[in-house]
Amino acid sequence: MHTPSPRSLLHAASTGTPLELDGRHLTLDAVIAVARQGRRVRLAEPARQAMLASRTLVQDMVARGETVYGITTGFGALARTHIPPAQVRQLQVNLVRSHAAGVGPPLPTEVVRATMLIQANALAAGYSGVRPDVAELLVSCLNLGVHPVVPAQGSVAASGDLAPLAHIGLALIGEGPAEVDGVVLSDGEALARRGLRPLDLEPKEGLALVNGTQVTTALSALAVADALTTLEAAVVAGAMSVEALRGSHRPFAAAIQAVRPQPGQARVATWLRALLAGSQVVVSHQDCGRVQDPYTLRCLPQVLGACLDAVEHCRAVVAQELNAVTDNPLCFPDQRLVLSGGNFHAQPVALAMDGLKAAVAVVAGFAERRIYLLLDGTRSGLSPFLSPDPGLQSGLMTAQNTAAALASENKVLAHPASVDSLPTSAGMEDYVSMGTHAARQAAAIVENTGRVIAIELLCAAQGLDLLRPLRPGRGVAQAHEAVRRVVPPLTADRPPAPDIERVADLVRSGTLGRLLRDAARRDP
Known about the structure:
Blueprint: H1 6-13, E1 19-21, H2 28-37, E2 41-43, H3 45-64, H4 88-99, E3 103-106, H5 109-124, H6 132-144, E4 147-148, E5 151-153, H7 162-172, E6 178-180, E7 183-185, H8 189-193, H9 205-210, H10 214-244, H11 254-258, H12 263-276, H13 281-284, H14 295-298, H15 300-321, E8 330-332, E9 337-339, H16 347-375, H17 377-380, H18 397-413, H19 435-466, H20 474-486, H21 496-509, H22 511-522
Parallel strand pairs: 1-2
Antiparallel strand pairs: 3-5, 4-6, 6-7, 8-9
Helix pairs in contact: 2-5, 2-10, 4-7, 5-6, 5-10, 10-12, 10-15, 10-16, 10-19, 10-20, 10-22, 12-15, 12-22, 15-16, 16-18, 16-19, 18-19, 19-21, 20-22
């Protein structure tokens, strides 16, 4: 994942139109803009009024001494323990402290920023019973570059992302570490450096901060965005391989797709036709006698199209969750009700992320087989291992080993996390989603797959070099030029690792996706 520097975030936060949070209209693009580009954020005025209304309801219930889960009772299996009025504030502080049990490496800054944004948006909807001050502090931290240090492990994503969210809450009350200006400070020093005061938690506010799905959703949002970028690059890489391997264009004909009405398949075939339009390579082998190509060429629309449909479904699930209120209990001031439920259970997102894992793992495995074909001189008709001097030089031989290693690792990570469960909280939380596991694994698979696609791009570009002076399709030629701008042709053995990383950066940049869309507009 990408982690912008604090300086770049602060610069971006000082420019542009702020994003208004109202709990209803947060989009995936907005999450990316805040998490990665430092877009400024502010709380919408209607949201402030909605928060005040639900806050008044909580205050009234506390004043009347009513029994309300997590406000005048303990938590989880301790819900039957009544908390006297004099201790309801201490209850919230104790909750944040006791639940900050995360372990492992810290989450990337971009994930923490996305989490805080989604938290603030959920609170802004006005169903959590907290003061606007809570959302305002989250917003101020985003705008001023104060980022709590949040361990990555410890959530089962069913009573919300309790442990990681508690680490954010701990920083907000001035008791946990946070990063500012690239330096990790403790005990409220990061807040003080930006002139911010820690929260003094009121009834319900600690619970609202820790009892949601925002970490799982933040990880998922970034993974979905990156998966779509990677999938577009995979289509471009596939088209380059078709040309380098002198494959047929006929399987991409619109007539074939029309009799199997799968939207992703039709879309990928359209992209491939646009990328391959104007090819001299296909003309050169139209009488070659080959009847059919291997599936990894012939079935590009069917396989990548199915993966695209799966990722689009995941995007829809995550888009809904971005505007979900997932703490407990929830406050409905119009009905004068505080209701306890289970919106904190992350099963919808967990299942979606397991689907994302499978789809993107397929993309990597599919690409690895084309890499194998490109490097097998007896199948490709190209120089063995695309070597400038086979035998003396090994060319890109071991790059395929790396692609195979990454594709195999993806298969392990793709095991569904959402079918697992271990009861927690003395059995009160008796079936959990493990959604944070699924989202973290999805992010890892997407990152691995980006590098597999980078290796295919390297190999396909080298193959196209060997076919000169024949010119590939217009879109493929532009993609080849994009690769060559960051990596020169292989003229003698050199370590492939730096080349792989440079092309992986190209994949992550979205350049190839923009090229694909431009080709589709030019050659529909």
